[in-house]
Specification:
Elements: E1 7-11, E2 17-20, H1 22-28, H2 46-53, H3 55-58, E3 66-73, E4 79-88, E5 94-100, H4 102-116, E6 124-128, E7 134-137, H5 139-145, H6 149-152, H7 157-161, H8 168-181, E8 183-191, E9 197-208, E10 214-223, H9 225-246, E11 253-255, E12 261-264, H10 266-272, H11 276-279
Antiparallel strand pairs: 1-2, 1-5, 3-4, 4-5, 6-7, 6-10, 8-9, 9-10, 11-12
Length: 294
C-alpha cells in the first residue's frame, strides 16, 4: 500500500474514504488525512460521478476488479485523465487504485490526430499504440476490411488484421527491421472480416514524442487484391495462349524485319527436326525453304 507508485484508497461500501497511501497524497496534492471521511466521488469530474457510483454494486461480482477511464480532480482544481480500478475486499469495503494516464491519453490523441488528417484518402489509415492496440481506423479501412471503427478501437492489430507472412521468421525479421529503421514498406496478406484474403501494399511509420520516445505507429494500407487477381488472370491467359500457339496442329513462326526467326511453335519444330535453340535468333525463314521456294 505505502510503496505502490499508484494511488490506493480503502473505502467503505458507501464510498467513504478510510485510508490513502502516499502516492495518492502526491497525485492529488493533499495531506494524509485531508480526504478521510470524504466520499470517493468528490475526487472525480461531475460528469463521471454517475458511472462511478454504480461500481460498488458491480465490484463484488468482478474477480479482477472493475476498471474504467475517468477524469479526476486535484485539490487545486486541475483535472487529469485517470484509470480507476475498484475491487471488493473480503469481509467489507472496497480497494480503489487510481493511475494517472494523462501522458498515455495524450499519445492516443496524437495518434488519432495523425490518422484523422488522412481520413479522406483512398487508402486504409490505421493508427496503433506501442502495444499494437488500434487507436484510429479510417473510413477506407472499414471498406477494405469490413470492420467498423467502433468495433476495432482498442482491439489488437494482430487479431483484427491477421497478417500473414511468408514464414514466422520473416514476420519477426520485418518487425525487427521496422523498429530499427522506424519505417517499413512491403506486401502482406491480411484478412477481411468474413475470412477472405486481402493483398495489401503496406507503408508503416513509427511515431515518436518530442523526447524521441516511440509512442505508436501509423500504417497506410492499399488494397492490391483486384490488381493482383487481374495480373494472375493475365498471366494465366498468356500461358493459355502460349500453349495453344505451341501445340497448334499447324506450324507457326514469327520473324523480325530482317527475316530472322524470333518465335516458332513446337509443331513446326517437330516437322522440321530442329530444336528451338537452333532456330530462334539464328536462322532466317529462307533457311527453312527449299531453293525452289526461295
Amino acid at each position: 500500500l505505502h510503496n505502490s507508485p499508484d494511488a490506493i484508497l480503502l473505502v467503505d461500501a458507501d464510498l467513504t474514504i478510510q485510508q490513502t497511501n502516499p502516492s495518492f497524497q502526491t497525485l492529488f496534492g493533499t495531506g494524509w488525512d485531508e480526504d478521510l471521511g470524504q466520499s470517493l466521488l468528490t475526487l472525480f469530474h461531475p460528469d463521471d460521478v454517475h458511472t462511478i457510483s454504480h461500481l460498488p454494486q458491480i465490484a463484488p461480482a468482478q474477480q479482477n476488479g472493475n476498471q474504467l477511464e475517468v477524469r479526476a480532480s486535484r485539490k487545486d482544481g486541475t483535472t487529469f485523465d485517470a484509470e480507476l480500478t475498484i475491487g471488493a475486499i473480503k469481509g467489507d469495503g472496497l480497494i480503489c487504485i487510481i493511475r494517472d494516464i494523462t501522458e498515455r491519453k495524450a499519445q492516443e490523441r496524437q495518434l488519432r490526430y495523425h490518422a484523422s488528417i488522412q481520413e479522406s484518402v483512398s487508402d486504409a489509415v490505421i493508427a496503433a499504440d506501442m502495444d499494437f492496440r488500434i487507436q484510429s481506423w479510417n473510413r477506407t479501412a472499414e471498406l477494405i476490411y469490413g470492420w467498423r471503427a467502433t468495433e476495432t478501437i482498442g482491439q489488437s492489430v494482430h487479431e483484427i488484421l491477421q497478417t500473414t507472412y511468408a514464414s514466422e521468421d520473416d514476420g519477426e525479421r520485418i518487425l525487427r527491421d521496422f523498429f530499427e529503421r522506424g519505417a517499413w514498406q512491403g506486401e502482406v496478406i491480411q484478412h477481411h472480416r468474413d475470412g477472405r484474403l486481402i493483398y495489401i501494399q503496406a507503408s508503416v511509420n513509427l511515431f515518436k514524442d518530442e523526447m524521441g520516445r516511440p509512442i505508436g505507429l501509423v500504417s497506410v494500407n492499399r488494397d492490391m487484391t483486384e490488381r493482383k487477381r487481374a495480373a494472375e488472370a493475365l498471366q494465366k491467359s498468356t500461358a493459355e495462349i502460349h500453349d495453344l500457339y505451341n501445340h497448334a496442329p499447324c506450324g507457326y513462326h514469327s520473324i523480325d524485319q530482317d527475316g530472322l526467326i524470333v518465335q516458332i511453335n513446337d509443331t513446326e519444330l517437330h516437322w522440321l527436326g530442329y530444336t528451338r535453340a537452333e532456330v530462334i535468333g539464328r536462322l532466317k525463314v529462307t533457311a527453312l525453304l527449299t531453293p525452289e521456294s526461295v
